[in-house]
Amino acid sequence: MIRTFTMISLLCGLTGTALSAETFSADVWADNWFEMRINGTQVAEDSVPITTERSFNAESFDFEAVRPFVIGIVAKDFKENDSGLEYIGTRRQQMGDGGLIAQIKDAAGNPVVVSSADWQCLTIHTAPVNKSCESESNPVAGEGACAFEAMDEPEGWDTAGFNASDWPQANKFSERAVSPKDGYDRINWDKDAALIWGPDLEQSNTVLCRITVE
Length: 214
Fold this sequence. Notes:
Elements: E1 9-10, E2 22-30, E3 33-38, E4 41-45, E5 58-65, E6 69-76, E7 85-86, E8 94-95, E9 100-105, E10 111-114, E11 120-126, E12 149-150, E13 171-173, H1 175-178, E14 195-197, E15 204-213
Parallel strand pairs: 1-5
Antiparallel strand pairs: 2-5, 2-9, 3-4, 3-6, 6-15, 7-8, 9-10, 11-12, 11-15, 13-14
């Protein structure tokens, strides 16, 4: 489902003089869930909860901001627990796979920024550490092949003052690799907008992606 979110004004008075904000429109599709922030303030959240196994909707919304500003997106793939698996205990037991695409346009409809390898994406939840966990009859999160690696969001990672110089660049993936569907097909994506994620579509379960718009 494509929804329009309430516009949020993000004004930065750096000199004590009121600055004029621009209006931007955004389209975001994620497998399975995302939250988008501008300079650390939430402007949109996926309307379908992360607890939903199959969620492939896109969201369209407007926001206001003063350039330069930082876009921060938290993107999560569905997992039943920290093993990183879904459909645990059934014949469909498997690792999920993620994917994210976004485009931002100005009030005139001109592209401002799209998801690409220019973004930086840090994976903060990786599981399972060994893909053989997928085939275990009794997978236990945190044990053996089903161990996981997790960390909290770095403080201020989605703001201008954060030093992300050691963050990796986003990994680009083909439509064939991600198999986007549903809401993805309802958006007219810019030709340069790419599907991005952490280093592994299956094992990277939560990623933080950021870019600065000048």
